[in-house]
Amino acid sequence: MLFTNCIPAFSQSVNNKKLRDLSPDRPHQTESPITVDKKHVMLEMDFLNYTKETNSTETYPSLGVCFFNIKVGIHKRMDLEVLSGTYKNRFSEMSTVPKHSFLEDFTFRYKYNIVGNDSGKFALVIMPIATTTNFFSDKFQVLNAGLLINAEWDLFDKYGLGYTGGISSFSLDPLLKQTELFSTVSFDFKLVGSLRQFIASSYRYNTTGSLTHNYSFDSGFTFTPKENWQLDCGFYYFIPEKRPFIFVGGTIRL
């Protein structure tokens, strides 16, 4: 997806009120507590991402294209979101690993803002989650669910401190046999003009996964030259699995 100045400036809502400041979930793993304005749509996307995947026998790189999060404002405090990856190419030598995949899973999220959507220096959201197989599967099913809280503090009008934490996933069949706890903290600050940098770290705890404890260090940049679109790039590095995740992406609000 490319952003150009020929895109109209969608700076007013249907009630001719100025929209909230652009506050996408990307590019760090800390999710935003600000919902999309009612009757508006936000598209967030990795144009390209690169990572390394590991199975029981090998580690191989993979390339993702157009990994998206579509968000629709349904109320002044609520939005609905759908996430998936459009295309992934795996550079694997194993015949059991699919070389190409399209829309592997869908993640559905609902955000309800408790405080700070339109004013104040603190905002808080609760966010239930459900992940399903895609609609083209032979057997459509809900894979897992979760519940997170997202919080953000505006510090001195220059810095941002964010937090996301809770149960990122739990199995439904059998119920609670697999559970993953997740928390992440991010800090962002202005460099010059519309260019900002973020640094973040995350932690996952999963007793049934291949790793009980998994950490990451994250960093990257955002550039927001217009009030309704943003470009970004960055990386996550996961420890102890020594896995990089590198991405280039952006956001547009309509």
Key attributes of the depicted protein:
Porin, 65% strand, twelve-stranded antiparallel barrel, single chain, 13 strands, 254 residues, globular, disordered N terminus, mainly beta
In short:
With 254 residues, this protein is mainly beta.
Can you lay out the helices and strands and say which pair or pack?
Blueprint: E1 41-54, E2 59-75, E3 78-90, E4 100-102, E5 105-115, E6 122-133, E7 142-155, E8 159-172, E9 175-192, E10 195-206, E11 213-226, E12 229-239, E13 243-253
Describe this structure in words.
By secondary structure, this protein is an all-beta fold. It has one domain: Beta Barrel (Porin), CATH 2.40.160. It has strands at residues 41-54, 59-75, 78-90, 100-102, 105-115, 122-133, 142-155, 159-172, 175-192, 195-206, 213-226, 229-239, 243-253.
Give the class-level CATH name: Mainly Beta
- Total count of domains: 1
CATH superfamily: monomeric porin ompg
Mean pLDDT: 91
> Numbering strands along the chain, what is their spatial order in the largest sheet?
1-2-3-5-6-7-8-9-10-11-12-13
Q: Radius of gyration in whole Å, from Cα?
A: 18 Å
How far the N terminus sits from the C terminus, by CA atoms, comes to: 14 Å
Structural class: mainly beta
Give the helix tally.
Answer: 0
In percent terms, what proportion of residues is strand? over 45%
Name the helix and strand elements from N-terminus to C-terminus, one letter apiece.
EEEEEEEEEEEEE
CATH topology: Porin
* Oligomer class: single chain
Largest sheet: 12 strands, antiparallel, barrel
Number of strands: 13
